[in-house]
Structures are given as C-alpha cells and as structure tokens.
Amino acid sequence: MVEVTLWGSLAAIAGGNSKVEVEAKDIRELFRKLAEQYPGLEPWIDRGIAVSIDGTIYRDTWSKELPQDAEIFLLPRLAGG
Amino acid sequence: MNFDPRFSGRKFASVGTRPIRPDGVDKVTGRARYGADFNMAGQLVGRVLRSPHAHAIIRKIDTSKAEKLNGVKAVITAADLPDLTDGDAGMYDILDNCMARTKALYDGHAVAAVAAVDARTARQALKLIEVDYEVLPHVTDVDEAMKHTAPVLNDAVFTEGLEQKPVKPSNVAKRTQYGHGDVHQGFAQADFLVERSFKTEQTHQGYIEPHACVASVSSDGTADLWVCTQGHFVYRQHCAQLLGLEASKLRVTSSEIGGGFGGKTHVWAEPVALALSRKAGRPVKLVMTRDEVFRASGPTSATSIDVKIGARKDGTITAAEATLRYTSGPYAGMWAELGAMTAFACYKLDNVKTVGFEVLVNRPKTAAYRAPSAPMAAFAVESAVDELAKEIGIDPVDFRIRNAAQEGTRASYGPVYGPIGIGPTLEAAKHHPHMKAPLQVNQGRGMACGFWFNFGGQTCTDLNIGMDGTVSLAVGTVDVGGSRASLSLVAAEELGIDYSHVKAIVADTSSLGYNDMTDGSRGTFSSSMATISAARNAIKILRDRAAQMWDIPVDDVVWENGQALARGEKYGNLSPLSLKEIAAQSGKTGGPIAGHSELVADGAGVSFATHICDIEVDPETGATRVLRYTVIQDAGKAVHPTYVEGQYQGGAAQGIGWALNEEYIYGKDGRLQNAGFLDYRIPVCSDLPMIDTQILEIPNPNHPYGVRGVGETSIVPPLAAIANAVSNAAGVRMTHIPMSPPRILAAIDAERG
C-alpha cells in the first residue's frame, strides 16, 4: 500500500481527497487502480500525469516501481521550451 | 527499460573535453541547410491571409476571384482542414489556431492560404480573397480580461478548478493552487512583510530563423515535410492527425535550426502547407515573414503577479504567497500553473501558497519559451526577496542561503527534494569576485536565483559501425544547442575511440523510432542515455565478433579502451583486437555491427542557477547599460563545457533583452504595433558585456554520467537579477518588465515626487 498525494485539480476529481492509499507495485498499476477507484481521473491519466517518487519526476516510465515507504506525488505533465 | 541509468562515478576520457563542433564548418560557410534552404522540383509558393482584427466573427470567405487568378494552384480555408481531432481539445485548439474556423481570435490569425507559381502571384491572390468580418470587442490586457465587463473570447470556456462550478463563461480558463502549511499563521509570525504587485509584458523567443517548411503530398497518400522544428516526430504526429494521414506515410525531416527556444515545439504553418500541397498536387514551400512570426507564432505570456513574503528578524522566511495571472492567448494553457509551481521552488518554506489563473486574451496562442513561465514568477519573487532582505538588514545572498531549499526540503510544488544545487550556486555567488568588485555612482548590483524542472522523455538512437571502424550515430532529438557534439563525445567515451571517428546526424521520422521533442532541456540528457545504451549494445556484438575471430567463448572477451581483450592466462598470446580490426572483419563474422536503443529517459533532475548583474542607469534619460554579468549553474556533468557555457550565456542574453527592452505593444485597436526587429529590440552584441559563467557539477543520480539538462534554467534569474540591479542603481523598486528607459525615468520621477 502506498500513499499518493494528488495536486489540487486532481484532488477535486478524486472526491476532494488530496491523499489516497493505493495497493500498487508500479506506476502502471497505480494509474489502473486510481482509474478504477476514481473514473473521473481516467481522461487525465490519458492526457498525461507525471509521478514524483521521492522527488524524482517520472513522466513516461510506467514500469517504475513504487517503494513502500516512498513519497509519491502526482503532478501535471510539464511543458518545456 | 533494460538499461541501468544510475550514476556510476566513472572517470572520463572524452566527456568533459572541448572538441571543435561538428556542424561548425557548414554553418560558417553557409552550407548548412535551414528551413528555407530546401527546394523541390515544381514547388509552389505558399502565403497566408491573416486577420487584421483582434476579434471578429468570420461570416463568409469568398475565394473565387483568387482561384481564377492565373498561376494560382490552390486556395484553402478552414473547410480544407476538417476537424479530425476526435474530441481532443488540445489538438482542436491547434487546428483552429492554424486556420480560424468561425472567429478570428487575434491580429494575425490565419483565415485562408494560397499556393501559386511565384510569390508575386501568391500575394496578388491574397488580395483577391474577400472575408466578411463582424468585428467584436477585444481584450489584450491580462487584468482587463479577467474583469466581468471584458468581452468573452469563448462562450464554451468555464473556469476550471473553482470550488463552485461557474454558471457563466469566462476568460479565466483555469485556476490552480500549490503549496503547504498555513500562510496566515506564517505571516502572523513575521516581523517584516513585503507585499508588491508586478507586471511583465509579452515577449517573443526572438529566434533568428522564421518558421519555414516544404510540404509535398502525393496522390497515393504519402507525404514529405522538410521543416525547421524542435521536434519532427511530434510535428509528424500533429500533422498526420490534422490532415488525416497515416503517420508512417508522412516522412518529416528536420532542417538545421536557427533558434527555437520553445517556439518551434508547436505547428503553425506546416498543416497549412500540407493542405495546400494536397489540394494543388504539387510541393509547397511556406516561409513566414518576420511580421508573421511576431503576429502569429507563439510568444510567451504577459503576466500580472502579486507577491507577499514575511520573515522574522533573524532572516527566516515564515510565509510566502503569490497570485499569478498569465495570458495564454485565445486558448487555454498551463502557463500560470507552471509559474505557480516554480515561483518559490528555490526556498525552504513551512508555509507557502501560490494560485495561478490562465487568462484568455486576443493575442497569439502562447507557446513555451525556455523554462516557460518561470522567469516571470522569479522576477516577482526574487524582487520581493531582495526587498525583504534590505528591510531586515541582511545581505541578499546570505538571506537566500539561509532560506535555500536543500535535500529533504518539501518543494513549494509538492514533493520532497533529493540532492539539489541551489545552495552551492548561492555559496559560489557569495564567494565570486564579481560580488566584491567596486561600483561607481549610478551603478547597481543585483542577484537572483532560478529554478527549472527539466525532463526527459521517449528517445531512440541507432549507432552503426562502418567497416573502416568509424561510427555513425543517428539520433531523433533535434540539435538546438550542440547535442551532436556532446552525443559524439558520449559515443566515443563508451566505445573507447576518438571523438573524430564519430559522426552524429539527426535522422528523419522514417529512419528511427519515435522521439519526443527537444524541449525541457532534454536533448543531451535523454539522447546521451540512449547513446550510452546503444553503444553498450554494440559492444556486446563487438565482443561476440572478437570471440568468433579468436574462436573462444564470448564470456572470455572483455571490452576496454576501445578494444577487445581475451581474459585469462590461457589467452596470453592473443593480441587485443581494436574496434577497427573487428569492424574490418564484420562481413565475415555475421554482418554489420550496430547498436540500437529505445528508452524513456526519466529522472532528469531539477536545476538551479544564481546570476549576478551590474547595471548603470542614466538618471536623466533612464537608459541602462549592462556592465558585468555572471551565471552560476549546476550542470550535473558538462559533457561539452563550451556548449554548456553557450547555453548559460544565451539564456542570460535573452533574459537581458526581456528585462530591459522587449515587449509586444498593442494599439487600442488590438493590433500589434511593433512586429519587427526595428521596433521590437532584442539585444545585439554591442548591448552585452562578456557573460561570465561558472559551471557547477553536482551529479544527477539518475544518469550514468550525472548529466542534467542545462538549456532552460539560465533564463530564469535574469529578469529578477537585472531588476534588482536597476532598482539598486536607480534607487527605486522596479516592478514592471521591461525596464525600458521611459519606465525607469517615470519610476525615478515618481520617487522624486
């Protein structure tokens, strides 16, 4: 079980919960479980969500494992120049 | 990803050296081919008709007279670019921006286009197109656009991110919020407070090369696009979707690029050129004029920002708050959100809150500009930080060091930082000789910090070893700042050969797997990771071939310093086999030797910089002169230090222009008044001092060599560093960018009463 922190807009879709607990071993499973628990999140996941694991931001590595005690933050997918 | 990206702490032979750039000779002799340098047999000239109105309903477009003009081969309107976006709102905005569908939303918005046998005929044809407009009230100012009385650009836009679902449409597309703690409680603990409002005007990336492309669509559904871009694979995806083409049948080749800085991450003219070619049945070349680049490509946001910061007498910040309003042009974006995320990222704060508002205005669609949105937020925050340090009576560098984020700090945008470089850049600034240099009358010194995320992304690389032992490296990230040199160094490092034996090219979209764009400072970070992986895959094959040549098990062959060695005493008589010797026999040992890699390069590592600037202000005219400028930035590992320094200097130079002169000026009619380099003044060499650089190398733990992105962070601190310098020189706090002579003079006059 990992605790995941959602940024503001996402928390509103997840019933106002800024922190949710999910049983997931990697980012792929995290997104799948989140979409099951909160169907409103699915289009956001499709558009792209970045996952910060202990401060390192992952945008596309869905196979990245989620350590049990890691700090996991969901962030908007960033734009760059 | 079957590749271990962790930092290994190895010693380098090639990486970190400064060889001559591989693209240099072509660029200084004029052989290098940019977007407009490509031609195809039978090509037509494309030209775009643009709205003269800031906001207008398009009632009717009559192209019949233009179509009848001799030499005109195609005329298109939005009807020739049907909506194939399938509910993808972002793509629909891109489509509407490429060719207005029902409304012209800004001065310069494309409404029709022609392809003709020559430029003169094309221009004549544009004059024959009759557009019936119903002109609407417009709004270009960010604060005006937020008012309830402002004309609403899009009736379908209701503010996202509000607690109560709005019942009326608005120009505020979205509200976002970041932070933690309790700012009210934090401010109550403060002995000193600074609260100010700031504005920054819209600027353009100012790339020297305008957008240019040649498009050729065949009747069999295949197509070619030669284009100046930061991301030819992304352009292929977008163009294929908008035109209804199969991506694999659209081959996109990227030209050399005369600057992009985020402005060439977005299609404007390319779908139009393809649609013209499809209709005309001939290739079409479309080159934007400078006027068009200013009016109708993607400048950065204009902003309005309120900042409040409180601190105790001992110099500890107790709370920080910012409200950031960013224009996004007529379509929703995430520009204020990026400002809200980055504004206080340099600091360790128990109580912080930022709120961003994305504001629609009748200006061109905002595009990324080098660390998009962060420079304006840093300008506001770092100005207030400087002022607060003064009020408390602490040296501004010491104040920042005291409050700097460090490993374990919760970032203002949410997560806890790993190892970061803000502290070391500040310590380096504190001890830099620049900080101790004397100043004369009317001169001021300023410094500021900046942050940018950096990111990686999808990356694919091919490394081919020729039979003569030289190496060709095909990458898919466009070289905007020297990546062909740095990636050649990386390939040479891994293979153990000389840099001069590696030739890197940017492959077209049909020759290599998909690559994300060169944005987010990812070019060298991502493609070096893929190059290391490809080289290691090639080494596996080289070892196998050496084993065949020696007739020994491959497990007994190791690769060291560019050659295969047979491991073990029983092979004592075997001389090492060089890469060249193995390559020469490749035809007889299994065929060509190559290494391939496809991966997602994540874990780019955040980046920080500190800049120091000296400015002289003429109190009689408000004119400024930059006397000295120093950039200190963490590169992780500088693969080719000269290019890293170039990135640092380039960001500073652009920031100096943004801070002192550059701005979009709109008339009351909503039309851009300075769409050219004579009236929109970017810095030239004589405006700038030699920009000194100091590269810090705090390894990124998520890259084998410790590399971080370096391209963007260097533009984050300049606005603030220069504002602090000007404020110190003029004796008045400057709150409006650019600090052009009239604004400085007005501020001085106001201060004098």
TrEMBL record, chain A:
Pfam families from the UniProt entry: ThiS
Transmembrane regions listed in the UniProt entry: none
InterPro entries linked to this entry: Beta-grasp_dom_sf, Mopterin_synth/thiamin_S_b, ThiS/MoaD-like
The protein's name: Sulfur carrier protein ThiS
UniProtKB/TrEMBL annotation, chain B:
MF terms (GO), sorted A to Z: iron ion binding; oxidoreductase activity
A Pfam entry, by short name: MoCoBD_2
Keywords from the named record: Molybdenum, Oxidoreductase
Boundaries of every Aldehyde oxidase/xanthine dehydrogenase a/b hammerhead domain copy: 29-137
PANTHER family: ALDEHYDE OXIDASE 1-RELATED (PTHR11908:SF132), XANTHINE DEHYDROGENASE (PTHR11908)
Protein known as: Aldehyde oxidase and xanthine dehydrogenase molybdopterin binding protein
Organism: Mesorhizobium amorphae CCNWGS0123
